[in-house]
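When time allows, look over one protein, given below as sequence and tokens. The question is which stretches look regular and which look disordered:
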Amino acid sequence: MSNAYKPDYLKVRQHLYELRDPLLNLHKALVDSERVFYEQTIGKILSPHHFLRLLAGDPWFVWLHPLSELIVTIDTVLDAKTPPQASRLDELVREAYRLLVPAETSEDTANHGFATHYFEALQRDPDVVVAHSEVAKLRRARPMSG
């Protein structure tokens, strides 16, 4: 039996598909929240192009990159012509859940302090809380094994 048709593979792949949209919604909520916070702190963002440049390279927004990159990786893996190993799909699910753990303090330099910034966004923006809860529902529905 091909890896692509094993029940575990199909279950993990389905979970990753179900996780994708809530992750995108959370990402949008975080980007919107961070834009408002940036404009309150630094000043008005002049255009969509200016905002895109800030998202891509300004230190203020760099903490969002791990989530952005994770979503791109999920899309790439799910759209691949060759089915990935079930373990690769499961690792992406685990990575999402590991990343989305807010922390009041963190020394996580590998993820640009994502946990701390995420904690702060959850404290200041109810839209981020709602988007986070959608991801949390999926996590509760499928706890990680091992």
About this structure: The radius of gyration is 17 Å. The CA atoms of residues 51 and 72 lie 19 Å apart. The longest helix spans residues 7-41. The chain has six helices and no strands.
